[in-house]
Design brief:
Blueprint (H helix, E strand, L loop, with lengths): L13 E2 L7 E2 L2 H15 L10 H5 L11 H11 L1 H4 L3 H23 L10 E4 L5 E5 L19 H12 L2 E5 L1 H21 L20 E2 L7 H16 L1 H6 L1 H4 L6 E11 L7 E6 L1 H9 L3 H24 L12 E6 L21 E2 L1 H9 L1 E10 H9 L1 H28 L5
Parallel strand pairs: 4-5, 4-7, 7-11, 8-9
Antiparallel strand pairs: 1-2, 3-5, 6-10, 8-11
Length: about 425
Amino acid sequence: MTASCVVCGRSALGTCPLCRSVCYCSRSCQKLDWLEDHATICGAEVLSAEDFHIKNGASQEEAPSLSKEVEAWRVAVESLWLELHSEEDLDHLSELQPLLTDAEQLRKVGSNFSWQVPRSELQLGSSCILVTAPHSMALLRDGHVPHLLERHTAEIAFGLARHLDGSCLTWSFAERRRTELLWRLSRRLNEQRGVTGNSDGLLLDPRNRDPNFLATQELHQNAWFQQMIRALEHTISQDDGLQTSMSGVKGGKYNMLEALHIDVHGCQDPPSTPSHLTVGLGAMCFNALDHGDLKAYDQAVFFGQVLADEFHCVLTSAHVSYRLRPSGALLVRLVAPKQGRDEECPRFSGAWRGTDRHAQTQQAVCFVGFSHAVQLELSKSLRALLVADRALLKGFALALKNAWVQAKMAQRAVAYSNGHRI
């Protein structure tokens, strides 16, 4: 028999997340009952991480796969109902509850296949181009404060992929909304407790870690990384010509396919950053230098220079200077490591150096098999403009395509001059 809502009598869709004994049909009824009297009579106790599974009826099969860190996080989220009581906080908690429940159910279904975990969303395209936006929500980063949300990067990534007929990888909308709510509740909890400092991300899901800061040993178990591999495998399966024509390169020392990875990021407006757009070629350049291939290094720098020129042409022809703040700042710059200074890693280059961590573009070039990869750092003003101006976003996509075509033609010309066909 279907349970009834204790407030209005309609069919219930959920229960109190603490005591699990009172049923509700909606968030509004849940909030109303909590404000009237349930907050004072709720029989829930603050659960320890050890008895969380027993209280919630979790299966014995699930427990070994969940770390103590995840269990402690779940307890902290459940306990929010006991500490936060404002109407706005209760609205957020009521919205958060079904989002978390849905996510856990989906994760159980896909637990045997890491790439099926629905935290990230991969939209497959027909071209050999992948656009990623890893910082479209706040994320935990080992040994550092949480990485903040870079607004509009997901929308820009989706737009670029659409214009380029490419694939797009970002966090799902539901996961972004869950994280946004958890961040807001973290701040409210700190305000109520009088806590200051860099602790606003204390309620972030510990399973959502920064894909732009992954260690070597965890790459092949990371769901986001598996999605990148899946995107390239999809391109190969859809394009027999690509697989055949590039088979010689795939068997070479770089193990690469002729494919492009674009990683979209956000930064502050100038003068906090030197320019509104930074083109980072660190992954391609460092990979070439590490292999002692100076020709590949020159080809990477050529690709970056052409790309910077194409972007500058798009921005100037669109007369965006007066629409950006500050208006007189540098529009575009190229960041690439220099020969002979291999250990110097310029900021926004799209690479980590002197550590076993790897940025997205490094993962694409060194581990997945992309031939070209670029990190785009977009200022706050430029991101807002790209989202509002569809023609400008299409121009950005065209600039990327033109630069990549020129880079491939130059690379093939060098190969032919050396007597190699690709």
